[in-house]
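Friendly challenge for the regulars: who can give me the structure tokens for this chain first? No prize, just bragging rights.
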Amino acid sequence: MAINQFRRRALLQGLGAAAACSAFPSLPTFGNNASYTPKGKNPEWEESIKRGLDFLARTQSTRGQWQSPPYPVAIGALAGIALICSGSTITQGPYAKYIARTTDYLISQTQKNGLIGDPENDQRYTYGHGFSMLFLSQVLGEEGLQDRRDDLVEVLNGAVSFCGKAQTAAGGWGYLSAKDGNDYDEGSTTITQVQGLRGCRNAGIAVPGEIIEAAKRYIYSCQNEDGGISYSSQQKGSSRPAIAAASLAALYNAGDYESTKVPEMLAYCRKELHSVSKEESLFGHWHYTYLYYAQVVYRQGEDEWSSFRDRLYERIVSEQQGDGSWEGPMINKIYTTACNLIILQLDKGYLPIFQR
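First reply, four minutes later:
Bragging rights claimed.
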């Protein structure tokens, strides 16, 4: 299995390096992730991960989706990302069958205009679109059948085109395409689009640079004096830790490490989120928040990551249910389980989007 894992990293990294579009600057190099071994890893974490992955596999339908209303596309894509974070691919590994099913399901949800989602039944379809771009871009490099690769490339090209047309005048995205809604923007789905576009670019799909530059300007425009980020450009003044953490992760994905606004944002997030005390109650978007803040801290390097990781992982593992899932205050257990599994597997470093 180790040889397959090494091949997977090398292939995906090669795709990212070979991408023709320069919309995203190259990410800084922090050593060879293919040989990276986490320090001080607790065996209980691996057991927890396996139980969680098995839960996702066990609860997936034969059509490749999870019974997770009201957001089946978004949560299906998130669950699929959790599965590929394990090192399984669309063709190899213990979860390959489930990854392939997820791929089929998301492709089946593609509309003629490029949207990956169901606008008739989902009033926040941009989340599903962004997470689907991220998931499908990660499986593209492992698809061995040429006709299937062609289908994935066609879907992702259409998805990027839709994303550009859905962008608001302010440079962000709302729950609906700007053409379908009222040009309303919102921070969390904006970040979902940026990560999805970064995944596409890594896979060799052309992403127009002006889309990303506009998104970066949007994030900067939402920053407040305390360094945090507002929920929307139309609701400035009150910072939200969840949006700040997600925005910072998105800026890293966009290659922005040097902006003068980034250190202010990082300081705000450290102040609000770094303690991860077990005594603190779960707030409404706790798992969403740490899905992104964990990525931010991981990018800071091993010295800062290891102590934070230990606190975060111990809390997450301690809250796992007997069936391998996690409950949470928002959405449903598939969503919470997928978020937690992505966090717990950051150390594995399989996906370029999450690598240092």
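Residues 2-21+56-354 form a domain with the Glycosyltransferase fold (CATH 1.50.10.20). The radius of gyration is 19 Å. Your move, everyone else.
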